[in-house]
Amino acid sequence: MATEEASSGLVFHPMDQFIVKPLFGEGPIHWYTPTNATLWMALTVLAIVALLVWGTRGRAVVPTRTQSVAELAYGFVHKMVVDVTGKDGLKYFPYIFTLFLFIVFANFLGLLPKSFSTTSHVAVTAVLALLVFCTVTAIGFIKHGAHFLELFWVSSAPLGLRPVLAVIEVISYFVRPLSHSIRLVGNVMAGHAVIKVFAAFAAVAVISPLSIVAISAMYGLEVLVSFIQAYVFTILTCVYLRDALHPHH
Amino acid sequence: MANETHDAANGAAQGAAHAAESAGMPQLDFSTFPNQIFWLLVTLGAIWWILTRIALPRISGVLADRQGAISGDLIAAEEFKLKAKEAEAAYDKALADARSEAQKIVAQARAEIQKELDAATAEADAQIEARAALSAKRIGEIRAGALEAVDAVAREAAADIVAALGGKADAGSVAAAVSARLKG
Prior knowledge:
Number of strands of chain A: 0
Largest sheet of chain A: none
Number of helices of chain B: 3
Distance between the termini of chain A: 59 Å
Helix content of chain B: over 70%
Strand content of chain A: under 5%
Oligomer: heterodimer
Largest interface: A-B, 51 and 38 residues
C-alpha cells in the first residue's frame, strides 16, 4: 500500500471497505462462511440486545436513561405503525420493529471507523425489501382475496382513465421493492464512498485540512442519513402494509 | 481433453470475474450473495426472536404499569380532593354549629342574669320600701314625741311664767290654756 502510494501519488480505493471477506483465513465464501458481514450483523444483534434487553432489565416505572431510550424507540415505531396502518397493523409491529432496529443499528455501527456496513450491500437491502414486498402482498391476498386487486383499479377516477391508471399502479407496485432497497443501499454506500474519497485527499498536505473538515461534515450528514433512511424504510413498510390491510383508496 | 478445456474456460471466467470485482463494486459480486442473505436471515430471525420473547413484552409491560400507576395516582388524587372538600364542609358546619350554640348560651346566660337582676331589684325595692316605712314611722314617732315635748315645755314654761308674775296657777287651767293656744 505504502509503496503503491509512493509510486502513484493519490490512491483511491473508496469501494474496498465494502468487500466481503472471510473472518478466518482465506478461501472461497460459501453460504455458511463467517465473514465480516456476519461479524457486523452479530454486533447489530448485540447492540439491540444491549439496548432493549440489558437496558430494560430494571423494568423500572421511573426509567433509567438506557431504558427510556429503549422505550422511546418502542414508542416511536409503535406510534408510526398505529398512525399509518391503524390499530389492526399492530399485529405486525414486531416485524416492523425488527426491520427498523436492524437498519438503524447496522447504519450506525457502519459509521464506526474500520467497520463494515451491512446495509451498504444490495444483497441485504434487497432481501429486506423483498421480504416486505412478499409479506405485504401475501397479507393483501389472504385478507381480501381477489378484492386486493382493487388496489390497482382506481374507482374514483373516470372510467376511461382506469385501465391506464391500473397499468401505472401495477408497474409502481412492482417497482416498490426496487426503490425501497436501492434508496437505502444508495444512501449508505454513497456516503461511505465519499468519506473514503475525502480521506484519500487527506494524504496531500495542502488540502488535508479542507479534506478533514469535509470528512467531519460528511460524517455528520451520514449520522443524519443513517437514522432518516431507517425511518424512511420503516414508514414505507407501514405504508405498504396499510395498502395491504385497506386496499380501497 | 474436453474436460481440460472446460476447466480452463471455467478458470478464465473466474479470473475475469475476480478482476471485475476488484475493479468494480463489491456489492455486485454475486458470489457473496448467498452468504450475506443467509446471515441476514439468521440475524433478522435472532432479532425477531429476542423482540417477541423478551424485549417487547417487557417494554409494553413497563409502559402499561406506568400508565396504570399514573391513572391510579390520578384517581387517588381525585379521591383525596373529594375527601378534603368533605372535611372542609364538615369543618364549616361544625363552626356554624359552634357559633349558634355559643349564641344560644349567651342568650340563656343573659336571660338568667336578667332574672337574677330583676329578683335582686325587686328585693331591694321591697327592702327600701320597708325601710322607708320604718323611717316614716320613726319620723312620725319623733314628731309626736316632739309635739308632746313642746306641749310639756310650753306648759312648764307657762306655769313658770305665771309663777314669775306672781300668780298662782293651777296645773289644770294652765294645760287647758296652753293646749288651746297650741291648737290655735
